[in-house]
Each structure stands twice: as structure tokens, then as C-alpha cells.
Amino acid sequence: MIYIKTAEEIELLRESNLLVSKTLAEIAKYIQSGITTAELDRIAESFIFANNAVPGFKGYQGYPATLCTSVNNQVVHGIPSEEVVLREGDVVSVDCGVIKNGYYGDTAYSFEVGEATPEVKRLLVVTREALFKGIGKAVEGQRIGDIGHTVQQHAESNGYSVVRELVGHGLGKKMHEEPEVPNYGRRGSGVKLRKGMVICIEPMINMGKRQIKQGADGWTISTADEMPSAHFELAIAVDKGEADVLSTFSYIEEIFKNKS
Ligand code: MF3
Ligand code: CO
Ligand code: CO
Q: Is the CB of 41 under 6 A from ligand 1?
């Protein structure tokens, strides 16, 4: 069952997703060589509580933290840890969720720690571009498959591969609602998009092969070939003509300007 959100619900979802966007920008200030992912998790959690919301991931199917922090060959669902120290040149994908006023926010960004290699920088650029190309298709009258096709086309034409086992999703009073939003697919296939559908589009793009493996902790997903992976996620409301993007990277990217 796909819930069509009212204008009021979309404003509440915008508030939740903007809070996640601001939480990721708060994290961005601290990402540098020497910090642990557990420290990033504490910063995010305090920021969320200070903004009258609660972490969306903690307790979700037993997940133990506020953030997912996935480093280098880790794709998604890396658990923050005191043992994981970020190092110059790493790429860390940070996914964050909140619940505010009963509605979820869910957004992710892949950061380089200091300066990554040119190869990794290109992976980040292409994955971010693939997300925005997908968002360009998230308009009334198009289909779910049009989003996935566009994301896949952009990733593969740049020599990368698309993770298939994990997908985007509807977002609302639950973190994962219907429909599923794969990052691959056939043009013109799948559910027709209607104004008021709220979905997360979240390409997970691998530099090497698309195959993944699950870690012994039961959560962490890594690339089978141990090559780097990137993950960017935004929540959008389907609309006529152009998607209404509910989360944003602009707060994060504002921090980068001030850092350099
Ligand atoms: N936020 C992830 C997604 O984008 C899901 C995380 S599940 C958790 O769909 F349990 F790890 F939090
Ligand atoms: Co997410
Ligand atoms: Co998501």
C-alpha cells in the first residue's frame, strides 16, 4: 500500500528531513583524520535531541546507533565504533535518520577525509550526479523504473556498478514504506509515480564489481572485491513537472566552503 501524503504531511516530512540534513552538516565540521566514528555518532545524537527529535535508526530492528558510518569498502550500515579511526584519504558514507512529529527523515552523504585519491573523488562525483539524475525522473507520470534506469545508466557508463540487494523506499510514519526504489531497472517499468508520494532515492555505487557481502556483526555491508563504494540519499516528494526535494546537501556543502 503506497500512502499519498497531504500537503501538511509533506511539510512535516520536510521538517524531519531538513533536521537530518543539518545533523549531517554538524558531522561535516568534525570529519577529519583522527576522529572515531563513535564520536561522530555522539555528536549526531546530541544534535538531534537538542532539536526536539529522536534518532530514527536506534532500535530499528535492533540497530544500536544513531548513524550508519561506512568506511571505504563498506557500502552501508557500518556501525559506529571507538575502534574505527578515520584516516586521511578515507571515504566515509554517513547515513542519518530522525523521527520528529511522528515522521521520519532519512538522508546520507559520502565524505572524503581530507583529500581522497582522484579515483575516489570521481566515484563521489558520479554517485552524487546519479542521484540527481534519478531525482530528475521523480515526477508525476513517470515510473519507478525510470528512476532506476537513469541512475544505473549514469553509474555504468562511468565504469561503476550498482548495488542491487539494497534499494530506496517510500518514507513517512515508517522509515521503509512502499514502493521499493531500485537503483537499476527498465525504462517505463514499475509503479507509476503520483503527486504526494514521498520516496528516498539512495544509489549505492561501487568502483569495482556490484557484489556485496555481509559482515559478522550482522549489519555492515561491504563490497565483495573490497573496492571503495559511495552512497548518497535524499528524500523527495513526487510532484508535477519537478520533484520537491525535502532534504538537502546545501548545509553540508556550506561547511566545506568555510573549511577550505
Ligand atoms: N537509512 C537506511 C536507509 O537509507 C536504513 C538504515 S537501517 C538501520 O534506508 F537499521 F541501519 F538504521
Ligand atoms: Co538512509
Ligand atoms: Co533510506
A: no
- Taking the model in full, what pTM does it have? 0.98
Report which protein residue has its CA nearest ligand 1's atom 7: 57
Ligand nearest to the CA of 236: 3
Cα–Cα distance for residue pair 113/93, rounded to 1 Å: 11
Residue ranges of alpha helices (H) inside the chain are: 7-30, 37-50, 118-136, 144-157, 250-259
pLDDT tens-digit readout, 170-198: 999 999 999 999 999 999 999 999 999 99
Index of the ligand 1 atom closest to the CA of residue 166: 9
**Residue 203 CB partners (closer than 8 Å, separation 6+):** 127, 130, 131, 134, 151, 155, 162, 183, 231, 232
The set of cell numbers assigned to 158 is 562511468
- pLDDT surpassing 90 at residue 91: yes
**Spatial distance between the Cα atoms of 175 and 106, rounded to a whole number of angstroms:** 8
State phi, psi for 224 to the nearest 5 degrees: -65, -35
**pLDDT for 68-83, tens place per residue?**
999 999 999 999 999 9
Cα 96 to averaged position of ligand 2 atoms, centre (Å): 6
CA pair distance 161, 90, nearest whole angstrom:
20
Report the first-to-last Cα separation within the chain, whole angstroms.
46
DSSP 6: P
Ligand 1 atom showing the smallest separation from residue 176 Cα: 9
Domains and CATH numbers, the chain: 7-259 (3.90.230.10)
Q: Tell the residue nearest (CA) to atom 4 of ligand 1.
A: 106
Half-sphere CA count of 144, side-chain side, radius 13 A = 19
Any atom of ligand 1 within 6 Å of the Cβ of 177: no
